[in-house]
Amino acid sequence: MASQYDRAITVFSPDGHLFQVEYAQEAVKKGSTVVGIRGTDIVVLGVEKKSVAKLQDERTVRKICALDDHVCMAFAGLTADARVVISRACVECQSHKLTVEDPVTVEYITRFIATLKQKYTQSNGRRPFGISALIVGFDDDGIPRLYQTDPSGTYHAWKANAIGRSAKTVQEFLEKNYTEDAIANDSEAIKLAIRALLEVVQSGGKNIELAIIRRNQPLKMFSAKEIELQVNETGKEKEEAEKKKSKKTA
Amino acid sequence: MAATFFGEVVRAPCRAGTEDEEEEEEEGRRETPEDGEVRQQLARKREVRLLRRQTKTTLEVSLLEKYPCSKFIIAIGNNAVAFLSSFIMNSGVWEEVGCAKLWNEWCRTVDTTHLSPTEAFCVFYHLKSNPLVVLCQCSCYVAEDQQYQWLEKPHNPGNHTQSNSCQVFWLQMVFGSCPRKNVQVTILTCRHVTDYKTSESTSSLHTPFLKALKTQNFREPPCCSLLEQPNIVHDLPAAVLSYCQVWKISAILYLCYTDVMKLDLITVEAFKPVLSSRSLKSLVKNIPQSTEILKKLMTTNEIQSNIYT
Question: φ and ψ at A144, to 5 degrees?
Fold first, then answer.
């Protein structure tokens, strides 16, 4: 039945599916994993870095992008679609600032991106954007925010979420481990993001990229050394926890 | 004729059918000599040949007649092949006994002489210390017309004029016309999770996951749950399993549903429960070393397309 109703974006199937939108969600799963954590005073974005070809410049392969000084976004899915969405979002951030003389709120820019995506699910001759995005930042009121958008144009606020390949595994990990203690301070929130990513990233710290925004501070991208340090610390804590557990059972 | 929104030109249906139209259609269906020639050339090109790779000579009999075995393990698809390469083939010395050379529209590899393990398209090995264990790694797509023997007549490389109501070659090449009943066949393959039919939403499924389908003669308990209806198996794994069912051979297919069809560590590791099966248990030696081998295999294949990030 799907084959009769999946060729045009504007056609519903008899049981209410928009197959092109669902297929776009499959395209998101082809992108590498992204995890977002909303802490008390920090927001963290962690991504699984894509392996680049030998002759390719690594700097041109980025999953985390700043939309404005206080908002940043990470995506999973079609690279070219992400570039277009990010470009439109950056322009909107500046346009808003010039018009209203206030920076965008995280919710505003998320809604803008979601509305853009929704338009492409309802237009003739266009296909949906094949990306999901995690948008993080701080508003003027100092409250940290984390939103997720998907190809259908829906958006929701989250405490922690993951998108892309193996997102389900990471989401289950977060559901078990996201507690008030886990986000008690900034370094705990960062470690939680790393531990969540290490559930699915097999090759360790060298394939992880991390970015944080603290209240009233701009986006900070972690260097490879800083990430390696964090991964090693997380590894040591995990070993100690396992030793304690085995002592208790013995 | 009518044009759709996307620029396709389609024939508009017409209920006022006329005799002239039917005659035109008949003429279109009649084959010209040139068409026949092209069809024969294509049939010759699509022939499957079983070769000894080192000598490039054709095997005169089917593979399992030449190399009788009690265990036959087939990996179809790159994830299954990577699983066997990492977890089974490091357990001993495996000698290559043949390779299947075939061409179809999906098969990109043409040169069979310089193949790396991950791009080898259909290679057969047996364990030197126990030649009754034969393994097949099939990374290429074996088309429908290449899977089954044409049951009525024996295989004749010169005979290409027959129509293809049944398909030819691969199974005849491997199993022969009268396969042994005491061989146990294990097939490993992958399929995209969107092919899995279930009342749950696919986003709620814990991919990758393993399902099994076995022949009536397979008596052991499978290493995972059985594939539920109305799901079906496709392509070469289905051909092998059907063949085994018809010939009353004990066979089991382990099908991994994944959302990543390219070579992927998590998908390959999803096959691990199969290591506890009777066929494979004795062949597994060093799992940590296997994991290392698998990681190395992944790194060599890790460079991804730039389309998805």
Answer: -75, 145
The candidate with the shortest Cα–Cα distance to A76, out of A8, A6, A159, A135, is: A135
Considering only CB atoms, A79 lies closest to which of B203, B266, B307, namely B307
Q: Measure the CA–CA gap between A227 and A103, rounded to whole angstroms.
A: 30
In Å, how far is B120's CA from the nearest CA of chain A? 22
Is A80 at the interface with chain B, CB within 8 A?
A: yes
**CA nearest to A169 within chain B:** B206
Tell me the ipTM for this assembly: 0.84
Task: In whole angstroms, give the CA distance from residue A219 to residue A211.
Answer: 7
Give yes or no for a contact between A4 and A11, defined as CB atoms under 8 angstroms apart.
no
In the three-class reduction of DSSP (H, G, I as helix; E, B as strand; rest coil), residue B44 is classed as helix
pLDDT in tens, A121-171: 988 788 999 999 999 999 999 999 999 999 999 999 999 999 998 898 899
Count CA within 13 A, CB hemisphere, residue A56.
13
Pull the structure tokens for residue B180.
């042994």
Is pLDDT above 70 for B26?
A: no
A174 dihedral zone (left: phi>0; alpha: psi -120 to 50; beta): alpha
Q: Are the C-beta atoms of residues B169 and B176 closer than 8 Å to each other?
A: no
Q: Which residue of B has its CA nearest to A53?
A: B303
The one-letter amino acid code at A238 reads K
Smallest CA–CA distance, residue B196 to chain A, in Å, is 14
In this complex, the residue of A125, A166, A168 whose CB is nearest that of residue B5 is A125
Choose among B298, B303, B308: nearest Cβ to A79: B308
SS3 of residue A162 by DSSP: strand
- CB interface of A with B, residues 209-248, below 8 Å: none
CA distance A65 to A178: 25
Q: 């099908």: which residue's tokens?
A: B255
Query: pLDDT tens digit string along B178-228?
Result: 667 788 999 999 998 888 998 877 677 888 899 999 999 999 899 999 999
Global pTM?
A: 0.68
At what angle are helices A79-100 and A106-119 packed, to 10 degrees? 130
